[in-house]
Amino acid sequence: MSAAAILTLADAVVAELNAAEFVLPVAAQRGYLPTFELPEMNRLQVTVVPRQDDGRLDTRESTAHDYQLDIGVQQKPEKPDNAHLDPLVLLTQQIADHFRFGRVASTSLVSPKIRILYLQEHLQKFNQFTAVVTLTFKGSR
Q1: What are phi and psi of 134, to 5 degrees?
Q2: Closest CA to 9 of 59, 65, 63, 74
Q3: What sections of the chain are H helices per DSSP?
Q4: Three-state SS for 75?
Q5: Which one, out of 9, 17, 44, 139, has a CA that is 20 to 30 A from the CA of 68?
Q6: Rounded to an integer, what distance in angstroms lies between the CA atom of residue 77 and that of residue 127?
Q7: How far, in Å, are 13, 27, 89, 96 from residue 105 at the CA level?
Q8: What strands, in cross-sheet order, belong to the sheet with 29-30?
Q9: Model-level pTM?
Q10: CA geometry: angle at 55 spanning 53 and 57, to 5°?
Q11: How far apart are CA 24 and CA 1, in angstroms?
Q12: How far is Cα 91 from Cα 129, in angstroms, rounded to an integer?
């Protein structure tokens, strides 16, 4: 059974992330709900989540699509201070930059956007860093 185009794209983004070198080691995975148990949050969690598939008629035989994927970066650092949070912010930036000017799974990147640099609420309530990078790709099928 073949996968939906957006899932194939998400899997390709996971593979790209896992093959790249960043300020912190990344073991990305694809998922739908990037929620983890508290003990798991001591490890860096990078999750690629399919977000949107906006399709429209392109020709008589194909449709053009804007695919959006969210990449969640989450970790509960030892301390919520600059020494522990700065590398996570840099990793978030590096993930967005990694996909600039790129093609993944027969699509072209339109825009990498750091949608949430960090959620203050998560830092305050859970002592957890949470950032979201949104990638928008153009493709057809």
Answers
A1: -110, 125
A2: 65
A3: 5-19, 82-98, 120-126
A4: strand
A5: 44
A6: 7
A7: 8, 20, 27, 17
A8: 29-30, 45-57, 63-75, 129-140, 107-116, 103-104
A9: 0.91
A10: 170
A11: 35
A12: 12
What is the C-alpha to C-alpha distance for residues 8 and 69, in angstroms, rounded to an integer? 11
Q: Which residues contact 37 (CB under 8 A, 6 or more apart)?
A: none
Domains, the chain, with CATH or none: 5-140 (3.30.2000.30)
Encoding tokens for residue 71? 């990449």
Note the pLDDT tens digit of each residue in 2-44: 788 899 999 999 999 999 999 999 999 999 988 777 678 899 9
Cα separation, 91 vs 25, in Å, equals 9
